[in-house]
Known about the structure:
The structure holds two protein chains of two kinds. By secondary structure, chain A is mainly alpha-helical. Chain A contains eleven helices and no strands. Chain A has one domain (3-34, 41-215): MetI-like fold (Orthogonal Bundle), CATH 1.10.3720. Chain A has helices at 3-33, 39-51, 54-65, 70-79, 87-111, 115-123, 128-139, 141-156, 160-166, 176-185, 189-215. The N and C termini of chain A lie far apart (39 Å). The model of chain A is unreliable at 217-224 (pLDDT under 50). Chain B has nine helices and 21 strands. Chain B has a six-stranded mixed beta sheet with strand order 7-8-9-3-10-11, with helices on both faces. Chain B has a five-stranded antiparallel beta sheet with strand order 14-13-12-15-21, with no helix packed on it. Chain B has two domains: 2-229, P-loop containing nucleotide triphosphate hydrolases (Rossmann fold, 3-Layer(aba) Sandwich); 236-358, CATH 2.40.50.100. In chain B, strand 10 (200-205) and strand 11 form a beta hairpin.
Amino acid sequence: MNWQAFWLTLQLAATVSLLLVAIGIPIAYWLTYSRWRGKFLIEAVVALPIVLPPTVLGFYVLMALGSRSPLGRWWESLTGHTLAFTFEGLVIGSVIYSLPFAVQPFAAAFSGVDSRLLRASASLGQSPVQTFRRVVLPLAKAGLVTGFALSFAHTLGEFGVVLMVGGNIPGVTRTISIDIYDRVQAAQYSAANTTAFVLLIMSFVVLSIVYGLNRRPWAVGPWK
Amino acid sequence: MRRRFPNPEGAFDLNVHFRAKPGFTILFGASGAGKTTVLDCIVGLGNPEEGRISIGGEDLFDSEHELNVPAWKRRIGYVIQDLALFPHLTAEENVEYGLRALPAPERRARSSEILTAFRIEHLRARRPAQISGGERQRVALARTLVTEPRALLLDEPLAALDRPTRSRLLDDLREWNRAHRVPILYVTHSSEEVFALGEQVIVLEAGRIVAQGSPHEVMRAPRLETVAQLSGFENIFDATVTALHEDRGTMTCKMENGALELETPLVHAEAGTKLRVGIRAGDLLLATESPRGLSARNVLPGIIRRLEQRDVIVSATVDCGGTEFEVHLTLAARESLQLTVGKNVWVVVKTHSCHLMSE
């Protein structure tokens, strides 16, 4: 069992899913309430990572992070090294890769909040931002937990994007799934088996928590 | 205000102009007449294409000056029929929802005061799902009233309640309004509520105001068929004025089908004017012998065509020379008069039971 890869993967998944809560909520909010006609285009872009082969996504992310792209150059001038083949680069790739797994449950939960509650809130003198914080977020709690957990679990198991963007650097970009691939290539089947089993159990536990929580939407969570 | 609706289903343009004083103003009309749309525009949840909305001298909407104060800055209370209580908050938290800007002690004090006034203090810790319909209504009203709105809009807030609960709540509302003299716009299609509450009634039909005045003026002598049907006339006949008797304050009208003539109250009309006569089935009397010595001016011989029992009411259909009247009787009256189909009877119609409407 490669504990270094294990902790690295957990760190990556936690960072990515927390970032996705921060990025996903505004995007989902906009997708839910915007009346712009071209909204479907943005919806399609957000959903792209679900259908794109991870290698295609990884390839573009790698290009965007490289020292020939504006983003890559800006990062290099800031930190002195490139984004590609670093943990930060991996985080960026994974955020894009897992975006729909956060945004879609968030948006579904927001649009599930009865619009009459929003109207009542406005007539009680609450601005749209206050209404969102005091009515929409608490009522969309189950969807927020689902989105967080799905993006966490999805990041745990990613392979293609990691390999393209991060390569296979122990302690920096070698995640569990890369480690398993490595072991199998080296014919270390029993080590691969242990790691694969741990990943399977972890994914199962995360999803069980999600479905368990959604059965009792008021019972637990960050809001009372 | 004016508002156009592009969809062909609700094909009318809203166009209303009115002023509501402190106290109750009833918006009355059939569903789809535009009542809720008017309220939505006032509270700021929908916008008219053209027009001006102001409260206490402050403009909230003015299409000429492109002014549109957002709903949450208007300070107008709005309670709708399905209440929209926040399901994740307790009754007390719901009531305190609109008081966020106040310091906590004052917020507590204001909410306890109104919870007591609306007799719901024992429910403070419960969620909306755990309390009854009538109690939810009280929470919804308290939640809005506690914010001390500059005007109150109520869209059939009591429609789902039984009669005793409803009248107790109306008493509480009137009590509140005595202390807070703000305009209350109250949407209903129950004529009972119109009489119970209305200081002023505005009748809407297809987006236009077709009558306004006191409940008595608008409802007791309805000139409009909408009002007639809503306030429950079982008998509506097309008729033509044949003679005016200004000396006794009545006139004679001939019914369109049949040769029947009725003496009705005098209205501004002339011989030949076509109008409609509405008569409540409960206002008619039946006699089995030709009655004498009655004050009623219309005693019409007829024959019973049908007798139907509806709950505790007997509905008799009587044919008087080609004009059919629906007459409501008690079960006891049917027994003691031994009414049967085919029996000859006399229908007695008081002059002032005939309500006249323009066609």
